[in-house]
Structure formats: C-alpha cells, structure tokens
C-alpha cells in the first residue's frame, strides 16, 4: 500500500523496497528503520526472490536521520546504541544479503542515507541526484558505515576531502570517484534498475552468495587468507547442481536454468 512508510513489492523474482516518506525526503525515523529491517528480512527469507531493488519515493532517496526524532535531545549513549543496534542491523542485512541488492538513487542522499545506499551491491543514480556528507556542518562525524564505504571506494585522501568539505557531490562526480556504478536520466532510473535486476535474477544465486562473501573477506584480509576462502567456497560450489547445469548448458549451447541448489 502507498500509505505504508516502507513499500515492499514483489514481481516474479524481483523485490522492490521503497522508502515512502516523500514529504521529508524519506528521512529515517524509528518506524521506517524497523520497517526497512522487516522488508529486508522478508526478501532474505523468500526463496522466490533472486534480486532486490532499494529506492525512495518522491524527489529524494534518503535525507538521513529524521531530526524531528530529536525533539527531545537524546543522550549520547542512546545515539551510540541506535547506531550500533538499529542502523547496524540495516547495514548488516544489506551487506550480508546473499542476493544482489541494487540501489536506485532517485534523488539526494545524505547522512545515514549514504551508508544505506553505498552498502548496496549496485548503485544507480539519477542525473539530478547528489550525495552530501553533511555531518561536519553540525559538528558530528559521518556514521552508519558511510566512512567505511566511502574510504574503500575513493581512498583516504579523497574521503577526507569529501567529508571535511560537507558539500553536495553531484551524480557525475560520484560516478567519476567510483562511488556509484551508473548515472541515468530520471525517467530511466527504475527501468534501468529493473533490467539489471532481471538479468541478475537469472544468474546462479549460490555463486553470487559466495562471491559477495569472498569480496567482503578480501576487504579485511590478506591475499592468502582470501585465497583460502576462495578455495573453501569453490569446494562447495563445484558440487552444486547449479555448477553442473552451467556446464551442461555450455556444452549443449543453451541458456542455463539455475535453481540455487
């Protein structure tokens, strides 16, 4: 229903999750955060879903934390606990998701919205969207994993420049820095994300799951530790039905039909 603050729509093998508070640029209050967690869990546990699109309603993707939630000033401990438990739960569900997650960034994203957007596997941004690390402008540090994702995308020096600057980074510059995968006109955003999702949904899900696991490991491990994980994952995949299907389809010169088994 369009009245829901998070809309979950499933069509065939694709789930689309829409943050739906357009009047406040999908700012994150407690309700929308918990509904997003529920939607992500729903997609994870639905074997029929093979790819996920995350987007926002209206003119913005996500403006970050809803400042009206701070009408009564929270204690420092409350802020820390919310970041670790609630925001951490959202980011962990996206990064640990064994299905591809595509973020269709339909407008500006700021604050914690950046962490959520950059946590996704693919980032497609409309040409009028932008990214802004605005925390420094109110005397705070960037959070919700945004510093981690940014630094690994652009490096130490550029990450400091972006965060210290606190300015809007337009879509074209986000693409140039390697923070996102693609920029498209607004009218083409969802169709582009949908086409990508359909293509990914036809690919072998077990191989995707292992690939994401190994890449995440590579970000925090050395070469040979990563190679050990590659070998371990390959040992599991080599015995899978999907691997045999892929081989047979190649030999028979037909399109494979992967089942995730």
Keywords summarizing the entry:
261 residues; alpha/beta; 10 helices; 3-stranded mixed sheet; Lyase 2-enoyl-coa Hydratase, Chain  A, domain 2; 2-enoyl-CoA Hydratase, Chain A, domain 1
Write the layout of secondary structure elements.
Layout: E1 6-11, E2 14-19, H1 30-45, E3 51-56, H2 76-95, E4 101-105, E5 109-110, H3 112-119, E6 122-126, E7 130-132, H4 146-154, H5 156-165, E8 168-170, H6 171-177, E9 182-184, H7 189-201, H8 205-218, H9 223-237, H10 241-252
Parallel strand pairs: 2-3, 3-4, 4-6, 5-7, 6-9
Antiparallel strand pairs: 1-2, 7-8
Helix pairs in contact: 1-2, 2-3, 3-4, 4-5, 8-9
Report the order of strands and helices: EEHEHEEHEEHHEHEHHHH
Number of helices: 10
Largest sheet composition:
6 strands, mixed
**Which architecture of the largest domain does the CATH hierarchy give at level 2?**
Alpha-Beta Complex
Total tally of structural domains: 2
Number of strands: 9
Helical residue percent band? 40-55%
Give me the side-by-side strand order of the main sheet: 1-2-3-4-6-9
Just give the CATH class of the largest domain: Alpha Beta
Q: What is the distance, rounded to the nearest whole angstrom, between the alpha carbons of the first and last residues?
A: 34 Å
CATH topology of the largest domain, anyone?
2-enoyl-CoA Hydratase, Chain A, domain 1
The coarse overall form would be: globular
Average per-residue pLDDT, rounded, comes to: 91
Q: Going by CATH, what is the homologous superfamily of the largest domain?
A: 2-enoyl-CoA Hydratase, Chain A, domain 1
Strand portion: 5-15%
| Helical/strand content category | alpha/beta
């Amino acid at each position: 229903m369009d009245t829901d603050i998070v809309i979950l729509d499933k069509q065939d093998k694709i789930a689309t999750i829409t943050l739906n508070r357009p009047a406040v640029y999908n700012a994150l209050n407690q309700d929308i955060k918990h509904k997003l967690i529920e939607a992500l869990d729903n997609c994870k546990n639905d074997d029929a879903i093979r790819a996920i699109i995350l987007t926002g309603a209206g003119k913005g993707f996500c403006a970050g934390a809803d400042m009206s939630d701070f009408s009564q000033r929270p204690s420092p401990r409350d802020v820390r606990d919310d970041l670790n438990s609630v925001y951490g739960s959202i980011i962990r569900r996206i990064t640990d998701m064994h299905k591809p997650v595509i973020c269709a960034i339909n407008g500006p994203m700021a604050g914690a919205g950046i962490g959520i957007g950059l946590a996704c596997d693919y980032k497609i941004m409309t040409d009028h969207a932008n990214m802004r690390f605005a925390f420094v402008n109110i005397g705070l540090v960037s959070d919700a994993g945004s510093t981690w994702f940014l630094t690994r995308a652009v490096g130490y020096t550029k990450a400091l420049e972006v965060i210290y600057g606190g300015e809007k980074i337009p879509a074209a510059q986000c693409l140039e820095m390697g923070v996102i995968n693609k920029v498209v006109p607004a009218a083409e955003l969802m169709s582009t994300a949908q086409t990508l999702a359909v293509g990914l949904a036809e690919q072998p899900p077990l191989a995707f799951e292992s690939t994401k696991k190994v890449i995440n490991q590579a970000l925090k491990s050395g070469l040979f530790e990563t190679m050990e994980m590659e070998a371990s994952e390959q040992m599991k995949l080599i015995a899978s039905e999907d691997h045999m299907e892929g081989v047979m389809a190649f030999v028979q010169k037909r399109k494979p039909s992967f089942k995730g088994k």
